[in-house]
């Protein structure tokens, strides 16, 4: 159904390799460095395979949310530095743009086994609009398109979807690996299947939760998403991050929440207590409180973690599970006093006998922070894409590969690409 990197002739070809280098960065003095290189490392097998075929490799990715503008702090230069450390024998270059004459001329002079990393595609608004003119400019840089960015396969972008209209396309080794593992879980999971959802991105997870109702035995919900459910049930949960509940998505979320509320207590399990931070004068104090008593508080509060009772309840369900899928922390785990919920749930999963899959940047960061990554059956760097695939939603980039039946011509262009 899908072409893979091993299904097409790549010898001496100029290959556009779509990677997911949306990595966390930190600033040391005047220089940005990569904090976690997991997403870079998972692309190495595909890059090495292309090097074995004497390919000229053009790496394409986005980083962060620059909203169609050039943002100095979101350049891919730190990623290029990390790649140079990994591929010491090959020439690795970085270009400060992803299209244009300078890019075209540099790529024209490429030699076999050279690697060039193009600049952040999100610096152009056309990327997120899946603008075909922009997609063709990217496609014209190479002869073959390989998508190894499973983590960004739920994005209907020019560099993940539009580009397949102009080039013979296939999936890379990591993309193929993720699809195989997740397909097995989606089609035949061992029961009970327990889904754990946390984090803050309600607008991207609400319909996924709805879809999971058909497959899961239980859905345990924490983090800000759990608070949104509780708020809809009438509890005073305090301040919620407004940026994740903007006016455009609020009505849609509310409508779907209403549809899901009848399943609360049956298939959907919410926190029964939480760690609150209350403000008294100029001081902030934290303590645990039962959710049932929330409405008796008149002081401004914020719930920043699940409490011990919820940890015990969720852990009981986790121990009975035979398959566990987890995405999103239970609280503000970056701060020690609000990290226990995420830590204890991570430990419960690691110590269970279930087949466990975790996905998403924050979840992966938490697993690494607590040194539990080796006790998880499969760590998927994709968050949204993993959830949407498992919840039986269509991933635009995967559909584009499925519909791509182009054959490599003498010039490395599809018939559709030549017509354009």
Count up the helices. 16
> Residue-averaged pLDDT, rounded?
89
Major sheet description: 6 strands, parallel
Which bin fits the share of residues in helices?
Answer: 25-40%
| Intertermini distance | 25 Å
User: Helix- and strand-based class?
Assistant: alpha/beta
**Record field, number of beta strands:** 17
Strand order of the largest sheet: 5-6-4-1-7-8
Low-confidence stretches: 406-420
The percent range for strand residues is: 15-25%
Computed over alpha carbons, the radius of gyration is 23 Å
Which labels suit this protein?
single chain, 420 residues, alpha/beta, 6-stranded parallel beta sheet, 35% helix, globular
What does this structure look like?
It is a single chain. Strands 5-6-4-1-7-8 form a six-stranded parallel beta sheet. It has a six-stranded parallel beta sheet with strand order 11-10-9-15-16-17, sandwiched between helices. Strands 13-12-14 form a three-stranded antiparallel beta sheet. The longest helix has 15 residues, at about 175-185. The chain has helices at about 40, 45-50, 75-85, 100-110, 125-130, 130-140, 175-185, 200-210, 225-230, 245-260, 310-320, 340-350, 360-370, 385-390, 395-400, 415-420, and strands spanning about 15-20, 25-30, 30-35, 55-60, 90-95, 115, 145, 170, 195, 220, 270, 275-280, 285-290, 300-305, 325, 355-360, 380. It contains 16 helices and 17 strands. Helices cover about 35% and strands about 20% of the residues. The two termini are about 25 Å apart. Mean pLDDT is about 90; it is low at about 405-420. The chain is of the alpha/beta class. Helix 8 (about 200-210) runs parallel beside helix 10 (about 245-260), helix 8 (about 200-210) packs parallel to helix 14 and helix 11 (about 310-320) packs parallel to helix 12.
